Amino acid sequence: MIKSFCFVLILWLTTLSLHAQNYVKITDSKSGAPIEGVVLISDSFSSQSDENGKANMDGFLPGEKILFKHSSYLSLTTTKEKISKQGNQVILVENPVRLDEVVVSVNRWAESKSEIPHYIQSIQAEQIQHYNPQTSADLLGNQNGIFIQKSQMGGGSPMIRGFSANSILLVVDGIRMNNAIYRSGNLHNVISVDAQSLESAEVIFGPGSVIYGSDALGGVMSFNTVNPKLSTTSTPEASGKVFTRYSSANMEQTVHGTYNLGGEKWGAVLSTTYTDFDDLRMGSQGPDAYLRPQYVANGPFNGFDRIVANDNDLVQKYTGYSQFNLLGKLRYRPSDRFDLVFSANHSRTGDIPRYDRLIEYKNDRLAYAEWYYGPQIWTLASARAQYTAPHLLFDRISLQVGFQDYTESRNDRKLNYENRRSREENVKVLSFNLDFGKDFDEKAELFYGLEAYLNDVGSSGISKDLLSGETENIAPRYPDGSKYNSFAVYSSFKYNVSPKFIFQVGARFTYTQLEGVFDKQYYNFPFDGFDMDNSAFNGNLGVVWHPTEEWQINLHGSTGFRSPNIDDIAKVFDSEPGNVVVPNPDLKPEYARNLEINVLRNIHDHAKFEITGFYSWLKDAMVRRDFSLNGQDYIMYDGELSKVEALVNAESAKIYGLNLNLEILFGNNWRTRHDISLTRGEDSDGFPMRHVPPTFGSSHLVFENQLWYVDLYLNYNGKLGYNDLAPDEKDKPHLYLPDENGNPHLPSWWTLNLKSNYRIHPKITLSAGVENIFDKGYRSYSSGIVAPGVNFMFSALFKI
Fold it and tell me: Which of 128, 268, 274 is nearest to 199 (CA)?
């Protein structure tokens, strides 16, 4: 009996051992994580890896070729003997040229890009680590088709397809940041989003108004911050990271920390970043006109300001600032069907000097002693509940409510003036989103939802006499107590006609309300205030065609709109010295009609080519033009005779362009990619559109393996002649260089850059880079600040 039992036990252990040896484990080349869903195929047998990355090898014959295939990884062919020599382990390399990335921004639910007609750029946390951007604006500037303008170092205004500022929508965790005072001029609120706290980001190019409403004319930038991770076992799991970085061009010092604690049903994450920037050094190989030879010294004002010589005229005095970000989330998932997340996001900058005003001259002297933005403070608190289960009207539902509190201010004082003017704005926004998704069968899918945003605007102005300390109220930037509300209903339907042909259509109705009263104590307008109701119906229609597995052709037509907000309707400000913009209560919404075609080709998983062409027609486009107030073309504003301007509805405008992208793989470790963006546009009067940048692009040579990531790349920018500049830009000659006729123009430029990461330990990654290697001195289009000179960057990432 005992001998029989031992024999059976030995036989069982032997079988178990043999069985274990006939499994292969498949992992990711970068992270080492197991890969689920890898298909193993030979002439005699097939198998598939499970959630642990393991696949059965029993049925494969010795010596025969085995193909390892996964839609997100490069295919690999090997044999059973080679796998055994490698310790029954196979490593796959992620395919950077695949067509089937998952995105969530288009319809607010996860979908494959291979089924969506929109042109979308996806940014993953790994890319953020590779390029080490100082701000979210710099992060976007590394992407194809996005141009960044900077009036000062503490900013960054994205331009997409000839649109910018309040014609591009910012979204954080599904909630729109754009509020009632987002202006049509360059807008820098994107820096409030902490790049180090992002899990991913997506950029939709072209009108996204069906799902997101007003402002999404040029595109939608959707940022997804880190979510709490839950434990896969009954034991709570903790993880985190600490990150620090130094940059030489502005003496940047950044420290970041993230900590996650998760159980099976609950989880929490805390993320925080603090950054301090000193004054920015420009490149030495540039024109003398960009130098900063003198500045107004800071210090107590005693009746006169002191202009001093700059010890190093490459250093752009008064550009430094600091920023603090804090993110906290709490997650509860009692079952696979229900997921609840509470989130709090807070961002605060220090004072941000407005450099483009500090370098203005009047009568051969600096015009301003002070010009700075006060702390930019943004707080977002939200709650999102998601429920998934088959029902008659929906299979999944998401309810999200949010509250935002935003504060900004402007402070300025002219040279030798004793009065400092300060204007502060505060906006409170209450938001509500209810989204549904319904699968009718494997072919048809419906998305629909409701949305409401309620804005309350507070605005005040104070002038302080620096000699006496006395203060007095002055005209605010906006009517205090103004309101801007928006309500909408929308839907989108996707139908897979066949595996090769997908059809999508969407529609939205939006109703907006604006109201406010002008204080006649400050202005003698021919109107008391404004009380406006606007509505818009817009939609989109798109098709996706896959002639073969390696081709994708998208044709997409869409309409978008932008309803005038409080900034458009009611603002009074000096756009440039000697010009003043006044309210125009007769302003109407502007509309865009967009047609685009997008062609993608995956060439045998070793190259990807993509070309996108678009043409946008704008009706009633809001543009700044000369205006009259009470029959007068000039009025006194802040003690200066100023030409009157206002936003008006132009008859029409057109914007068109191309985006080209090419990526080629050379084996598993080397690749090159190239992109170029060309945009042109003009209004009905033949004037160039203000937010159309010059031609720009980049070229990269990348090496990557399990330990190293190295990217040597060129950034390049075309020129803009005098006749290519919008009228608004021609009025700012101090930001440009004179051409042979003495007229302002923008010369072309290029930079060579190098970025690298080295993983010295599974939990430690060191990074180093050099930007603008040849120390070129250049200024980007419409920017006030001169770009950084040669910049050495060092960082370290520690995972815990």
Answer: 128
